[in-house]
Amino acid sequence: MDIEKEVSKSIFKAALLAISLFIMMPSVIFPALPLIEKAFPNIPRVTVELLTTIPNFGEIFGLLINPFLVKKIGRKK
User: Fold this and answer.
1) Inter-axis angle of helices 3-29 and 45-73, to 10 degrees?
2) Contact 52, 29 (CB under 8 A)
């Protein structure tokens, strides 16, 4: 097998895993918010709740920058 194809397969798998984990992060953190609030009583509740919203900003940023990356890199065939 060609080494470049192997590397691109590995990069694709790593990218897909990273995206999946990034999307699932808020739903995993959400049930733990009350415990996090109890563990850090000096931190405002709004700041703790940002743990579930900050990953969504990353998704929005990725969606906005995607067309520019496709133009620069090109589509995968």
Assistant:
1) 160
2) yes
Tell me the pTM. Answer: 0.52
* Those residues with Cβ within 8 angstroms of residue 40's Cβ, 6 or more apart along the chain or in another chain: 48
Listing DSSP states for 4-73 in one string gives: HHHHHHHHHHHHHHHHHHHHHHHHHHGGGHHHHHHH-TTS-HHHHHHHHHHHHHHHHHHHHHHHHHHHHH
- Among 23, 21, 15, 12, which residue's Cα sits nearest to residue 76? 12
59 with 23: CB under 8 angstroms?
yes
pLDDT tens digit sequence for 28-49: 888 888 998 999 999 999 988 8
